[in-house]
Amino acid sequence: MKVLTLALLAAMTASSGGAQVPLTLDTSFRCTRFLNNGLIALLPLEDGSVLASGWYVRIDGSNIPYSFFRILPNGDLDESWTSNWGYGDILTSGDYYYLTINGFPARYFRTTGTLDQGFLPITENYPHPGLVTYNGGDVYVQPDGMVLCTGDHRVAEQWGINAPGWYSLLRVDTNGILDSTYQWRKTDGVIWTLVPTTQGRLLVSGVYNTYEGQPEGRILRIWPDGSLDTTFHTNIIKGYATCLVEQPNGRILAGGQFVFPNEPDTLHLIRLMPDGALDTTFNNHTQYSHVPPLSFGDFAFSVNALLPLGDGRIMVGGDFTHIAGQLRRGIALLDSTGHLLTTAFTGQGCGLWHDFNSTYLYSGLTDIKQAPDGSIFVCGFFKGFDDGTVSDTSMTFIAKLHGLSVGIHEAERPVRQVQLWPNPGTDVLHIETGTTGHMDVQVRDAMGRAVLAASGTGVLKLSSAALSPGVYLIEVDSGGERRTVKWMKQ
C-alpha cells in the first residue's frame, strides 16, 4: 500500500505540474466540524458546494442538532443554511428542495434553505384524517408537484376513495394535504425504498410479502398511479434493496440484502434483467462481509450506494469491510460485471468512528454522488479516509474525490439545461440542450408510455401533430446525464 502524507502529496502535485489521480481524495475540500451521528445523503450543486442531510448531527461550536447542511466548495459549513428538520435523499423540484420526515416530505426554499412552513404534511393532516406514521420510507416528487410517500402509515377514517387502514404508498398534493383522489396502495409490511426510472415508472422495495393483496417479491416496479407493472417480477423472499439504479440497457443494479429460493447465500449486490429476472452474466455472488462478524450476520450490513461510471465501472459504498476477502472498508470499485478491481480504493477506506458515550467503532458510506464538474462526493459515518494513494485522518462524514476526467478533455459535456419550444405547442416540438454531443429523446404521456422518440445532435425537430392535447414528459439523455422536462400539447 502506498499512503502519502498531505505534505508529500502537495510536493508531488507541485512538482508534476498539478497532476491529479482520478478517484483519489481531493484534499482542497476538507470538512472537519461534524461531531457525531453521520450523514445520510448528498446533492452536489453547480457552484461547487454540496448539500447534505443527516440524522440530528452536531457540529463544532453548536449544541443544536441539525439535519440539513450546505457545505461550501472548500468544505467549510455554511452556517446560515443549517436547519433541524428533514433527512434522507435531497430532491429538487421547481423552487424547492424536498427531504423526508418520517416518510413524508419537508420542503425548503432553494434560494435560502429555509423550511416552507406552509407545507408540513404531518402537521396539516393531523388530527384529520387521523394520520399516524409508524415507519417512514422515501418520497418522490412527481412532475406535477404531487409527492409520493412510502413507509407504513395508518389512516383512521375514510378519506376520499381510500378506506381506513394501513398504507405503504400515499400521495400528498402541492399544499401537503393527503390526495383523496389517488388510490393509496397497501402491502403486508413496509416499503422503504422508492426510485424513479424510465417511462415514468418507479422501483420500490421493502419488507413485505404482498402488494395490493397479491404475492410479490421484495423489489417491484409500479406505474405513476401505483399500479403494478406486470412485465416485471422478482422472486426475492427476504431482505430488501437500499439502493437501485437502472442502467441505460434497462438492467437494474440493486444493493442491499437479498435471499432467493433455494439459495444458501445472502446476496448484497445483484443485477436484474428488465423483466426482474436475475442477470446471470453479472457476478451476483461476490462475497460482501463485515469483520468482525455482527450479531445479525449478513443482514447487519449492506451495500447502500451505487455510482455507475461512464466507462462501465461501478463504485459501491456501504457498511461492509471486505469484498471477496479483500479489505474494502465502506468503498470499492468493480468492473462492469461486478468483479472487484484493484485499481482504486485499496487503502484502509473509511476510518473508524464512534459516537459520544459509546465505545463501539463503525464506519461506512451511505451515499455517492457525482457533481456537475465530474468530481465525486461520498458521505456516511467515518473519521478519516484512505484511498490507498492519499490519506487524510481529518475528513469527517464527507469527502470529495477527483473525477475520471481529471486532465482529460471531455468530448461530450453533460446536459445542463433542456430548451423546449414552443411550450405550450401544437404540431412541431423543438428540443435543444446547448451542447454539441449526441442526445436521445423520448416523449412520454401521462401514464409513462413512450409515444415519440428521436436521436441526433444540435436542435431536434419532432412532429407532434398526431399527439392528443395534454401534458407530456420529455426525457433527454446526453453525455450520460438524463433530464426530464414537462411539455404541454394544445
Which ranges are low-confidence, i.e. pLDDT below 50, for 5 or more consecutive residues? Answer: 1-18, 407-416
**Main sheet attributes: strand count, strand direction, barrel closure:** 4 strands, antiparallel
Report how far the terminal alpha carbons are from each other: 63 Å
| CATH evolutionary superfamily of the largest domain | YVTN repeat-like/Quinoprotein amine dehydrogenase
Q: Which structural class should the secondary elements be placed in? A: mainly beta
Strand content: 35-45%
Global shape? globular
CATH topology name of the largest domain, in short, is Methylamine Dehydrogenase, Chain H
How many strand units? Answer: 35
The CATH class label of the largest domain is: Mainly Beta
- Count the domains: 2
C-alpha Rg (nearest Å): 23 Å
Q: Provide the CATH architecture of the largest domain.
A: 7 Propeller
Mean pLDDT: 88
Helix content percent band:
under 10%
The helix tally amounts to 2
Question: Care to describe what's here?
Answer:
With 490 residues, the protein is mainly β. It has two domains: 6-401, Methylamine Dehydrogenase, Chain H; 419-489, Sandwich (Immunoglobulin-like), CATH 2.60.40.1930. 3% of the residues lie in helices and 43% in strands. The protein contains two helices and 35 strands. The strands form eleven sheets. Strands 1, 2, 3 and 4 form a four-stranded antiparallel β-sheet that branches. A hairpin with a 5-residue loop joins strand 31 and strand 32 (450-456). The longest helix is centred in the first third of the chain and has 10 residues, at 6-15. The protein is globular, with a radius of gyration of 23 Å. It starts with 5 loop residues before the first helix and ends with a strand.
